[in-house]
Design goal:
The protein is 33% helix and 9% strand. The protein starts with 12 loop residues before the first helix and ends in a 13-residue tail after the last helix. It has a four-stranded parallel beta sheet. A two-stranded antiparallel sheet has the order 1-2. The protein is globular, with a radius of gyration of 24 Å. It contains eight helices and six strands. 14% of the residues are buried.
Length: 263
């Protein structure tokens, strides 16, 4: 522990938590390098953090020390820009209407897709579980790396199902000996190239494909391990997730691994 007498002492984790029956953890940073304060106020239990800044939220101004503190959204930046906004519901470039079209396509074809997938999953699933991933041609070298690395270590990839977003990736995955399913209704419009930057159009399209390839097996009552194609295995992960005697996993319905971003 450390205590210089001028503030709150720093304790080791065991000492700091030895009297805690429950603990709330708050993650915070100061990316704008502003004069930032943290207030702890007794009230009803809440798992949300309020954010206040000295800004004019009507004019969306930058931080001004002469202004009173105002409640702001999580996306309000110190320079006055709102990073999160409600997308327009109409107009030529409305993302809302584009998403409605995607949702309509999904709903109109989901029964057919599940009918196609049922015999595939019945064939490859082990202990009612399947490993799923999605890939386009821009990521195909990463899929090859995964398959070659796994086989070099002696792993059986018979329970892996790849959801390619183009026919070229489908042929490549099958050439690697992997089971595939090409959802032409929902994935054929996804670009074939690799994303140029985080969050661009291709990146977002592949995020949608990732949602679908997890959702389909879940709708058919299978356990699903999803991974990106840039992952390699040092051990077969399935025994870890399916160990009924391990409380680290047996008591949870869903487990996530944080990869450094919050997409």
């Amino acid at each position: 522990s450390f205590d210089d007498g001028n503030g709150i002492p720093l304790l080791d984790p065991q000492t700091a938590t030895e009297n805690c029956d429950a603990m709330n953890v708050v993650f915070t940073a100061n990316p704008g390098n502003t004069r930032q304060c943290t207030a702890l106020i007794g009230n009803y239990e809440s798992y949300h953090i309020q954010r206040w800044m000295r800004v004019d939220t009507v004019k969306t101004t930058a931080v001004d020390p002469s202004l009173p503190l105002q409640l702001v959204s999580r996306g309000y930046a110190s320079r006055g820009k709102t990073n999160f906004y409600a997308p327009p519901s109409d107009g030529k470039y409305s993302p809302v209407k584009r998403h409605w079209v995607q949702l309509k396509t999904f709903l109109q074809n989901v029964d057919e897709v599940l009918g196609d997938l049922k015999p595939i999953l019945e064939k490859i699933a082990r202990n009612n579980a399947v490993v799923v991933m999605t890939v386009n041609m821009g990521q195909s070298s990463l899929l090859m790396n995964f398959a070659c690395s796994a086989r070099r270590r002696g792993f059986d990839l018979g329970n892996v199902l790849v959801f390619p977003t183009d026919l070229e990736s489908k042929k490549l995955a099958e050439g690697l000996g992997l089971a595939t399913y090409f959802d032409e209704h929902n994935m054929s419009t996804i670009p074939k190239g690799e994303a140029r930057r985080y969050g661009d159009k291709i990146f977002r399209s592949m995020m949608y494909a990732k949602v679908l390839c997890v959702l389909y097996p879940l709708l058919l009552n299978y356990d699903v391990l999803f991974q990106d194609v840039d992952i390699v295995w040092y051990k077969d992960p399935m025994p870890f997730f399916q160990d009924p005697d391990d409380p680290k996993v047996a008591n949870f319905d869903v487990l996530f691994q944080h990869d450094g971003s919050d997409s």
